[in-house]
Amino acid sequence: MNVYDFDGTIYRGDSSVDFWIFCMKRHPGIILDLPGQIFAAIKYKLGAIDKLRFKERYFSFLRRLKDPRADVCRFWDVKQKRIKEWYLNRKRDDDLIISASPVFLLDEICQRTGIRHLIASDVDIASGTFASPNCYGSEKLRRFKEAFPGMHIEEFYSDSRSDQCLAEIAEKAFIVKGEKVREW
Fold it and tell me: Is this structure's pTM higher than 0.90?
């Protein structure tokens, strides 16, 4: 099994940020959430709240969307072209995407590109609240072992050193910077 981080690895950019910008253009009323999002970002940087609380505040804009699933589909109609060509050229049927981005956002692009395995943050699409810990760092490793007990990783790809724990258990690991893929 080959395992891939999503944002910055096989997708050019950060899909959660891109989705927020996309929604802001379509639904200008979500600007009303911006002061709270900025305040939460400051509190997070100062260590007053954890990453999970910050991300819940960030995704609180979802409650202002009338049909967020339709917005996700429209988003991928526009952004699907940001999936990196090097990945599409090597994609296999047993690939796994493991990401801190929300399942509701990545599930659609995985279906469109034929990716059957996805582990990501379980975020309520109506409220932005998390139903489980943010799928980041060691949480990715825990979820991988839970979902695929006994399975080994042939190749692992990420753009972030925060994924070191997955790189360590892979036969081969690669760091991705833009379109360049090199050994970890």
Answer: yes
b/e per residue 150-177 (b: at least 16 CB within 10 A): eeebebbbbbbeebeebbeebeebbbbe
Round to whole Å and give the CA distance between 120 and 135: 6
Look up the CATH number of domain 2-183: 3.40.50.1000
Say how far apart CA 123 and CA 11 lie, in whole Å: 20
The 3-state secondary structure of 51-82, one letter per residue: HHHHHHHHHHHHHHCCCHHHHHHHHHHHHHHH
**How do residues 97-126 score in pLDDT, each as one tens digit?**
999 999 999 999 999 999 999 999 999 999
Contact 3, 157 (CB under 8 A): yes
